[in-house]
Specification:
Elements (H helix, E strand, L loop, with lengths): L1 E5 L6 H12 L3 E3 H9 L3 H7 L2 H15 L6 E3 L8 H9 L1 E7 L2 H8 L14 H19 L2 E4 L5 H15 L3
Parallel strand pairs: 1-3, 1-4, 2-3, 4-5
């Protein structure tokens, strides 16, 4: 069974995912990193050259491949929930954890990160994050088996909580 992390940018998926993989002795796989390897372009370049739709198509392909494997920590991109087929595939062989954080924490964590292209291209980072979160939060919550608020926990505390739930669900 895979352990799948979903959530908006800056909620801690990469940090928590890497720590979880070490804690559970499982490989860590970033779906975004897999897409970058396959296309041989960074995400800002890919979106700028082709489009967000092109990126989402590559993401869907990567999910189709990776979700079929077993025993890995999968760190998904923030928009993976925008295509229901991705969630169907991820849930087939995975326990899905939603990482959530307060908007102020998200902005503080990633507001200056240039490797995350704008989703709208027209708003401030804070306005964009608030708008996208309003749209995606119901999708995240519908997809998740469990939710963890990373504003309330350190990465290590989040790992302990998630690892305990995962071990109980997958006692092998």
């Amino acid at each position: 069974m895979n352990l799948v992390l979903i959530g908006y940018r800056g909620t801690g998926k990469t940090t928590v995912g890497r720590l979880l993989a070490a804690e559970l002795g499982m490989p860590y796989v970033s779906i975004d990193e897999e897409i970058v390897k396959r296309v041989a372009l960074g995400i800002p370049e890919m979106v700028g050259r082709y489009s967000w739709e092109y990126f989402r198509d590559r993401e869907e392909e990567a999910v189709a491949t990776l979700a079929g494997r077993d025993g890995q920590v999968l760190d998904t991109g923030g928009g993976v929930v925008t295509r229901p087929v991705n969630i169907e595939r991820l849930k087939k062989n995975g326990l899905v954890f939603l990482l959530e954080a307060e908007l102020s924490d998200i902005v503080a964590r990633i507001g200056s990160d240039t490797q995350r292209p704008s989703l709208t291209g027209t708003k401030s980072f804070t306005e964009e994050a608030a708008e996208v979160l309003a749209h995606r939060t119901p999708l995240y919550r519908a997809a998740a088996d469990h939710a963890v608020n990373t504003s309330a926990l350190s990465p290590e505390e989040a790992v302990r909580q998630i690892a305990a739930i995962y071990r109980q669900a997958n006692p092998h």
